[in-house]
Amino acid sequence: MKRPTRRRLRRPLTIALAASGLLALVTAVPHAAPAPSSTPVAAAAGNSATVFYYTKTRNWAAYNLHFAPDGGSWTTVPGAGMEAACTDWVKKTVDLGSAAGLAATFNNGQGTWDNNNGSNYALGTGTITVKDGVVAHSDPCGGDGTDPSPSPSPTGTDATSATVFYSTTTVGWTTVNLHYAPTGKAWTAVPGVGMEAACTGWVKKTVDLQGTSGLAATFNNGNGTWDNNNGNNYALSSGLSIVKDTKVTNNATDPCAAVVPDTKAPTVPGTVKASASDISTVLTWEPSTDDTGVTGYQVTRTGGTKGTVVTSIASTVLSESGLEPHTTYTYTVKALDSAGNISAASAPATATTGDTPPPATAGKALGTDPRKDPIYFVLTARFYDGDASNDRGGNQDVKSGNAANQDPMFRGDFKGLVQKLDYIKGLGFSAIWITPVVLNRSDYDYHGYHGYDFYRVDPRLESAGASYQDLINAAHAKGIKIYQDVVYNHSSRWGAKGLFTPTVYGVRDSQWSWYYDEKQPGFEYDGLTVEPKSGKSYYNGDLWSTAEPSGNTCLNWGKPTGAKSPEGYTLYNCQWSGPTSKMFPSTYYHQCWIGNWEGEDSRSCWLADDLADFNTENPEVQNYLIGAYNKYIDMGVDGFRVDTAVHIPRVTWNRRFLPAIQQRVTQDWGADTAQNFYVFGEVGAFVNDKWNRGSVNHSAQFYTWKERKEYTADDTQAALDQYNYEEQLGTGNQPTSANAFLDGNAYHAPDHSKFSGMNIIDMRMHMNFGDAHNAFSNGKDSDDSTNDATYNAVYVDSHDYGPNKSSMRYTGGQDAWAENMALMWTFRGIPTLYYGSEIQFQAGKTIDCGPSCPLATTGRAYYGDHLEGTVTASDFSKVDSATGEVANTLAQPLVKHLQRLNQIRRAIPALQMGQYSTDGVSGGGMNFKRRYTDTSTGVDSFALVAVTDGATYSAIPNGTYKDAVTGDVKQVTNGTLTVSAPGKGNLRVYVLDLGGKNAAPGKIGTDGPYLR
């Protein structure tokens, strides 16, 4: 890559807020908080817990707390009765002995339970609230269940009190605490006093000023997230004050004075439907309406041995997995509004589960020539959501704007991809390139390029009955290959589990406790499971330490750097991982930043702060990566797309990784399959030069060749020696190949004896697809320096760039798209299409803006809305039936164009695997001839192709030629055939009729908007 723009958050390491993924408004903590710097702010002293439980949305006749101190025994069912605390709250104080917390559930004493959707609530010590599934640390009743504030005067305040209104619209908190200090007086104990609902979007609290005229104030959600006016605290006066979006209005009027209290409940959810598949269920319903807006739903499930389970959810779809087999479950749904009003229960819906799905059997690579298989490229997490239960937003959910769109970054999954395999087959594709599948770890890791555990499939992509193995097997059953995107160059910024993970300084002081999660022994990050006490699936407590680790080499561990974050927070040494901080050992990771993208350091330094660069010349690193990717070869994947291939020395590829791939595929599936295991590398050469800025080491075609010199056995030194040797030889002394070219009109056996084992993405064509003619002429120019360009993966745009290094998805229009496709599907190479391009999805939108804008506004938007409904395909490009929105998608002009192109290419071997020539072809356009001959099978296919422009083909074999587009027949007796210009987006493919199995097919498919 020239610049790592696609998925890398290239932020300075000193900007701490960017790592938080939360709005500046809500991430600050109290400037004057009294907690010692080494003590977690949210922790409470003592070995007891006072648990408050919200009753308004339950409306039970009685409330019981059934609990077990950490490491202790559970109370006898139904537990301890809870007593009234204040309006809408009950409470119970329990003795924990020496335990640091408790596991808890709640029930009405008559069999109805709230057990956190089967996971129990994990609570700490001190004062804790549980409100509609949300755990926080605050006192909603202001202390002991009574409001300690003085009675307000008729105007709402008096000379020694202050009434504070706080707007919740922006922060979205369900619990708000006021942490304050009267002028010159002591601060309240963290987290402060609970504020009560005033009206929609507002909470309030009246407090005693102890004879002073004002107060310093901060606000928090009771669970470690703060608003302290960007480190300055809020200065409020006596009387009535308003704080809204960091703006203070003193001596204000009551913002709720003219507001009529909302007492109207939402309408009852309608059309509730439940369906079951194996041991999973999906529940859907029509949205409710409300005079102030519906804020969520409460789903009650009965059935099975676990009793009644109540789940709070914001969407109108609930997906559950891991249920009991052969069990009938009944669901009812209630709607809630912001005032806490709750509707009556919906009509019940039932679903009966089936068998527990057996573990998927091992797959087997299909093993056919990859040039036969057009490729459809998907970002799995953004394609289709088959299981909402594994959706995750991460710590960037709010900051990015995804939360506002109800569009979590991890949304699509393998289950969704399995459900839409017929859509992809119906388009005519027989290979799918999917983004990396390994467990990721970063602030924004939905794309898969921040690998953390390379030996584990990311659970956010899998479901019961829809594991990665299930996807491979399901695709193979339909004749579709799976190409897995793999990363050898780098791990996440948190290292690679099983090889090395850094420990960073993470003091949980009054500034940073919102970010550093308390370490929970026994909890293992998997991206999916919510850590109970922090409430996060992106928990990071295992990464942080306030004590210097044994053997640490990072200098000045934990000491202030002297710098501040933009919010005024103290920055510490060893707080953020990076190549020069000495937190990563040189054994496993490189120790430098790239200075020259076309220099040697681009192959041995870090691309970005969140991409820790492996020392791939080290045998331990090599073995870690080889072992990891052997696992996926064993599962039966059909090929690897190699990310950032240019950032590993070619000699390392040729010595270690490429032979290891071939060895494992041969061991598993045999030599023929190994020959057809498709490895295609990303070598980011984003210029129009044949050789990237004159550097052979940074040019795509360079990676298709074996080494031609022996180097020292030391891989580190060999990489330097190889770089210098090839760079000094220069561009004029590189190998050449005729493997892509016809010899006159004859096909000749290609010479792959010098092939490295890595094919390439055709960056030269990609960069020039702003105009198909430019792509054609530039592509041809590089083919003699590529080992075999008939294996090039060819695309217009991708998850990184559009043509000419554009940051936008291709926006050339439908006619240009049709022309580009016509060229890709007939010229040498393997046509590859980025998901949604078949309908010009997100044309002109920025491909990637990281978390600075919602994914819905980018080229990586969720595609599933266009796939809703059913589709069945009995063959490639053949859709038997389609309903719903997917039927509309399949009716689009470019879809019809694409289906027919795939039909034509699939029927003519010359278009799949043929060599080409432009010799004797006049007309100056995108015109060429192709031939493929295989004497072992008796296949001989010869075709004349004219894309957009007219042409005359001279010195060709005499005989009968039939056009696959129109069915036109031409007799050639003098070695010449002339084709009139078919027009933009259209083409002609005249196939020589050689009889028998090599007979010309004639017209293939039916006329469409372009092919006619």
Strand order of the largest sheet: 41-40-39-32-29-28-43-42
Shape: globular
- Name the beta content range: 25-35%
Major β-sheet, in short? 8 strands, parallel
Structural class, please? alpha+beta
Unreliable runs = 1-45, 144-158
Tell me the radius of gyration.
Answer: 32 Å
Number of helices: 16
Mean pLDDT: 89
The helix content is: 10-25%
Give the SSE map.
Layout: H1 16-20, H2 24-27, E1 48-54, E2 64-69, E3 80-81, E4 83-86, E5 89-95, E6 102-107, E7 113-114, E8 121-123, E9 126-131, E10 134-136, E11 161-167, E12 177-182, E13 193-194, E14 196-199, E15 202-208, E16 214-220, E17 226-227, E18 234-237, E19 239-244, E20 247-249, E21 270-277, E22 280-286, E23 294-302, E24 309-313, E25 317-320, E26 328-337, E27 349-352, E28 375-378, H3 397-400, H4 414-419, H5 421-427, E29 431-434, E30 438-440, E31 451-457, H6 468-477, E32 481-487, E33 490-492, E34 504-505, E35 544-545, E36 560-564, E37 570-572, E38 611-613, H7 619-635, E39 639-643, H8 650-669, H9 671-675, E40 678-681, H10 715-729, E41 759-760, H11 763-768, H12 772-782, E42 793-794, H13 814-824, E43 830-834, E44 871-875, E45 878-882, H14 885-890, H15 893-907, H16 909-913, E46 915-917, E47 921-922, E48 926-934, E49 939-947, E50 951-953, E51 959-963, E52 969-972, E53 977-979, E54 987-992
Parallel strand pairs: 1-9, 11-19, 28-29, 28-43, 29-32, 32-39, 34-35, 39-40, 40-41, 42-43
Antiparallel strand pairs: 1-5, 2-3, 2-6, 4-5, 6-7, 6-8, 9-10, 11-15, 12-13, 12-16, 14-15, 16-17, 16-18, 19-20, 21-22, 22-25, 23-24, 23-26, 26-27, 30-31, 33-38, 36-37, 44-45, 46-48, 47-50, 48-49, 49-54, 50-53, 51-52, 51-54
Helix pairs in contact: 7-8, 13-15
